[in-house]
Amino acid sequence: MTDLPLTTLTRVRRGAHHQRTDRAALYDVIDTALYATLAIVRDDRPVALPVGIGRDGDDLLVHGSTGSDFFRRIAEGAPVSLTITHLMGLKYARSLFDSSMRYRCAVVHAVASVVPPEEKEAALLTLSEHLMPGRSEDVRPMTAREIAATLVLRIPLAEASVKDNAGSLVEVDDDGEDRSVWAGMLPLRVVAGDPVTSPQTVAGTPVPESVRRAARRVAASGTA
Amino acid sequence: MTDLPLTTLTRVRRGAHHQRTDRAALYDVIDTALYATLAIVRDDRPVALPVGIGRDGDDLLVHGSTGSDFFRRIAEGAPVSLTITHLMGLKYARSLFDSSMRYRCAVVHAVASVVPPEEKEAALLTLSEHLMPGRSEDVRPMTAREIAATLVLRIPLAEASVKDNAGSLVEVDDDGEDRSVWAGMLPLRVVAGDPVTSPQTVAGTPVPESVRRAARRVAASGTA
């Protein structure tokens, strides 16, 4: 895989030593995320909303209603910024000034393209596999009307920055801070609870393997 | 508390029945969050980054380095969109089309103001109390140099939307879907792990109550 290029948009300006330029780091942030915060410019102001994501090779997929003004603007070429943050913990330094969050974060800059009608069903299945792996085999197929009502957008992963400060707890030896003050980290992770069955499900229907699989994935990554 | 006004920027366009206009809902999303995704327009493109947050009454506080181009632009009056998302679970419907995320989300639209020098220390303590309650009593006071190096921005919570679809699992009785397919929800929550002590801390230093308090707060809300 080629490295991510350093451009005006992607060069990390603060805490640059935490930048990662390998695609594996970017794909790991994406593949362990269920949603991203998608930002556009609307009437000269920023607006950013959470959206479910899926990765299809070197592209990200997002979907929305064909009736959504937000998605329509992106379909018409409005540049996007797509941010994924995995908060990994709180770093308690020996001063408030040096205290911080521990996180992995990816920011993608792109102009999206609209997935053409003949590729929409496959793209929606890719999204579904990312968000709810195996679920498409539990449920009925999508209908033509459902596919027609959905706008699917493809966002190239060509220009992106990844920042990861979740490494070891490094302190400079001669920083003059008091080592008798406790310093360290409070780790944070996402966990899945027990599945809740909808009351209208036929009594005795077992929780499908796909749902257990999604729970295991969250348990493995600690992120969502 | 007055309700949040419905404006061009705040009226929810999709899934409008999930919109909440009470300030209590907004403050709850904020007070159970450690960070937000802050978006601005830079050179006609959106850019959005995660930032730690604190609430001070009817304002949000964020802080960054005085050397940060991103924060400087906000200080100079660039409009912001600030998005907080609490992903509460995955909703498994009886079709892929109706499947979705369960979340609480707040989007704030504002122009920030710079906290003046004489109010900065108090504002930084408010931020610290939000992020690491009680921690300021464990550590040394901030220095004048640290305060000077920090830009603190105040974001009024005047124009904001809140969307909450994390309520009960409602299905329309006559939707024609197959009730023998399992439907339901996989809950997701954030948990804190055991605190990790920095190796340079004097051996035997106990984990402070402030860190345990932060862990309890995450446990209570399930969000971060």
Can you identify the CATH class of chain A?
Mainly Beta
Count all strands of chain A and give the number: 12
Work out the count of structural domains of chain A.
Answer: 1
- Gyration radius of chain A, to the nearest Å? 20 Å
Oligomer: homodimer
Task: Please tell me the CATH architecture of chain A by its name.
Answer: Roll
Query: Percentage of helical residues of chain A?
Result: 10-25%
How many helices of chain A? The count is 5
Percent of residues in β-strands of chain A: 25-35%
Low-confidence stretches of chain A: none
Structural class of chain A: alpha+beta
Report the CATH superfamily of chain A. Answer: Electron Transport, Fmn-binding Protein, Chain A
| Coarse shape of chain A | globular
How is the biggest beta sheet of chain A arranged?
A: 7 strands, antiparallel
Give the N-to-C terminal Cα separation of chain A. Answer: 25 Å
Protein name (chains A, B): Pyridoxamine 5'-phosphate oxidase family protein
Pfam families (chains A, B): Pyridox_ox_2
InterPro entries (chains A, B): Pyridox_Oxase-rel, Split_barrel_FMN-bd
Organism (chains A, B): Microbacterium algihabitans
